Automatic annotation (TrEMBL):
Keywords: Membrane, Transmembrane, Transmembrane helix. This is VWA domain-containing protein. It comes from the Bacteria. InterPro entries: vWFA_dom_sf (IPR036465). It comes from Flavobacterium luminosum. The chain crosses the membrane at residues 6-25, 37-58, 651-668.
Length: 675
């Protein structure tokens, strides 16, 4: 308690005693027992009231001994079992947990990890990956200001996350215990394989493979890619102590539509300890997406070149710029882009009235809107001769197809005559028009579907400025080109709109967690938030059937899968209330990333130890590590001062006592006729 507080208490004591003496003894000049009692009560009331106002606080100090934390982190990934180190790990865990000297000196805390970090999780060595970097991220959160050692039992082979060698905390010393064979055996490995998930029919698709060799002599090897029993690519490669890597590029033919699985294999005449990493499966879906597009215009405009270049970034699209009076056969094209139609387009509209080819109409300052009112019935145009600049507002509820906001609101405005544009039927608007900061009722980009016929309308010219603005922002045309390609893809499909739409990949790697999503639309093609969706999976090899329920997400329904066995699966997604259903299939490729390593990664573990002023150990030298931890003076027990503060009197009980004293004084005075 501070000196100033003590002085206040003494002063309060004197004031309370003085007032009580003056009121009941000095003025009364009668030292009867009643007056003495009332003086005492008045003194207690005044002193208690002042005491509550001063609220003196007592400070207590005590000291606690705080041991240095010793986290022992164990690799729980499947590679430990693959390297036959499970029993050794359990022995090491027991050795640390039962060491009396360590428990007396340190606060032993056991953790495990695979792709995640666990504080209390039984070891089963079935983790589908290992993220060592995450270990140090979590330890940083647990021990922010302590200097502590870390014992890390691992093979050092990481499959996920950042580089763990440079991800440690400055005040931690890491002592890795290398699990697995520390002798480097001859090993050939497919380190990485890059291939597109999709390829287009009659094209060639690239496959890039990175090979790695671990050995001390020159050897020859053969790299091949197989499709079923057929070898579709083969190349010899030579490795040596000075040439441990090789990159193989292959171009494979996409000659059949569908999902095709391939196997990349590296072989040699040498005996290898680990053959699992000599093979890598991959799959490619070949799709037929060729589109012939006529870009019809009677004027010359920068938009034409920008549209053509953006669309043709997709090799399956071919755009032909043609004048309306020069086009002969509309049926030679899959899509018609009508740029600023006028009376010269009459023959085009007449021919297409019978062919019903999907169209993309773009208007601008050179458009004849009276002509459009006459030759189409989806929109009514009431336009003035005055020019206006229209900016775009992205509508997040757009659901005709999946697209993202690529920054439309920041794009330069498009030019179109001022007026009103009224949609007569049903349409879906992606972009709403805005004049400066004022939103209008006019659409800017709208998609209309009528049966199997689809149309798109863009009300404004100078879309080339959008492409340039996207490039300035992203340093690439890619986002804009993808946006325009999705518009073309929508128009290229003549299939009737489905009530049940499933989004999934045709192949996944074994051990990979993945999600299948679905959207169900009612008869008005509105997203149904109360749908009841289930998916039935059938393993084609075992004929085993499993049924799962979809869970509602933000804008769709989702179901997650993990640990599915390799093989091909047929599935049926069904909506219970309407009995609507759709089918499909996907394939789980046989690939276990934890079986790609034949040895412990000694070099990286040693580098980790050096970077943290630790030291690398092996299970055979674990006694040296334990002796070091027992005897070192680097990690000392800290004495922690704990300060607690408590008030001299609790406010609640002080107020209760004050009320009791006031009540007692009143009743005594009342009883004795002093009121």
């Amino acid at each position: 308690m501070a000196n100033s507080t003590i002085l206040l208490l003494i002063f309060s004591l004197i004031i309370s005693a003085g007032i009580a003496f003056y009121q009941y003894l000095y003025k009364a000049k009668n030292y009867s027992k009643l007056n003495i009692f009332l003086a005492f009560i008045r003194f207690a009331i005044l002193f208690l009231l002042l005491l509550l106002l001063i609220n003196p606080v007592f400070t207590h100090k005590k000291y606690e001994n705080q041991k240095t934390a010793l986290p022992i982190v164990i690799d729980n990934s499947a590679s430990i079992a693959f390297l036959n180190e499970v029993e050794k790990v359990r022995e090491l865990e027991k050795l640390f947990s039962e060491n009396v000297n360590l428990k007396e000196k340190y606060d032993l805390q056991f953790f495990s990890f695979d792709t995640d970090f666990y504080s209390e999780n039984p070891l089963d060595f079935k983790g589908r990956g290992s993220n060592i970097a995450q270990v140090f991220d979590r330890l940083k959160q647990l021990y922010r200001n302590q200097n502590y050692p870390v014992v890390l039992l691992t093979d050092g082979n990481q499959t996920d996350g950042n580089d763990y060698v440079f991800n440690t905390q400055p005040n931690s010393n890491v002592f890795p215990v290398a699990l697995g064979d520390t002798i480097k055996h001859l090993d050939l490995k497919i380190n990485q394989l890059n291939a597109n998930k999709y390829a287009f029919l009659k094209n060639k698709f690239p496959v890039e493979t990175f090979l790695y060799y671990n050995g001390n002599k020159t050897i020859g090897a053969t790299f091949s890619i197989q499709s079923g029993n057929q070898i579709v690519f083969k190349q010899n490669v030579t490795f040596s102590p000075n040439k441990k890597t090789a990159t193989i590029s292959a171009l494979l033919n996409a000659d059949r539509v569908g999902v095709h699985t391939y196997k990349a294999v590296i072989t040699s005449k040498e005996n290898e300890k680990n053959l699992f990493n000599n093979t890598k499966n991959f799959a490619v879906e070949v799709i037929d997406q060729r589109s012939e597009i006529a870009l019809i215009s009677s004027i010359v405009h920068p938009d034409l070149g920008a549209i053509k270049r953006a669309i043709e970034t997709n090799a399956q699209r071919k755009v032909t710029i043609v004048k309306p009076n020069e086009i002969k056969r509309l049926q030679d094209y899959n899509i018609l882009i009508l740029y600023q139609p006028n009376s010269q387009f009459k023959t085009v509209f007449d021919q297409n009235s019978n062919l019903n080819i999907n169209t993309f109409i773009i208007t601008g300052l050179h458009t004849d809107f009276n002509f459009l009112n006459q030759y189409q019935n989806l929109f009514e145009f009431r336009m003035a001769g005055q020019k206006e600049d229209y900016s775009a507002d992205f509508k997040s509820d757009f659901n005709a197809f999946a697209t993202e906001n690529i920054g439309f609101e920041q794009f330069p405005p498009l030019e179109n005559p001022f007026g009103t544009i009224t949609l007569k039927g049903n349409g879906t608007t992606l972009l709403q028009s805005r004049i400066r900061n004022v939103s209008t009722d006019n659409p800017l980009l709208t998609f209309v579907e009528n049966g199997t016929e689809r149309q798109a309308y863009l009300f404004g010219e100078n879309i080339w400025k959008w492409r340039m603005e996207s490039y300035l922002k992203e340093k690439s045309f890619e986002k804009f080109d993808i946006f325009l390609d999705k518009t073309i893809q929508y128009l290229a499909s003549n299939a009737k709109k489905k009530n049940l739409v499933i989004t999934y990949e045709n192949f996944y790697n074994s051990g990979e967690n993945f999600v299948i999503s679905a959207q169900y639309f009612n008869k008005n093609y509105e997203f149904d938030e109360n749908a009841q969706l289930t998916i039935q999976l059938k393993n084609k090899k075992t004929n085993q059937i499993k049924i799962f329920d979809f869970a509602k997400a933000e804008n769709d329904y989702q179901v997650a899968f993990d640990n599915l066995e390799p093989g091909q699966y047929d599935f049926t997604v069904k909506e219970k209330k309407s009995n609507t259903q759709t089918t499909g299939f996907f394939q789980i490729l046989d690939f276990d990333i934890e079986k790609q390593f034949a040895n412990a990664d000694i070099d990286r573990l040693k580098q980790l130890a050096n970077n943290t002023q630790g030291k690398l150990y092996t299970p055979s030298t674990i006694d040296n590590l334990i002796k070091y931890l027992e005897n070192t003076d680097q990690y000392k027990t800290l004495q922690k001062e704990i300060i607690t503060r408590s008030p001299l009197i609790d406010w609640f009980w002080g107020l209760i006592l004050l009320i009791v004293l006031l009540t007692t004084e009143w009743f005594v005075r009342k009883y004795n006729g002093l009121l």
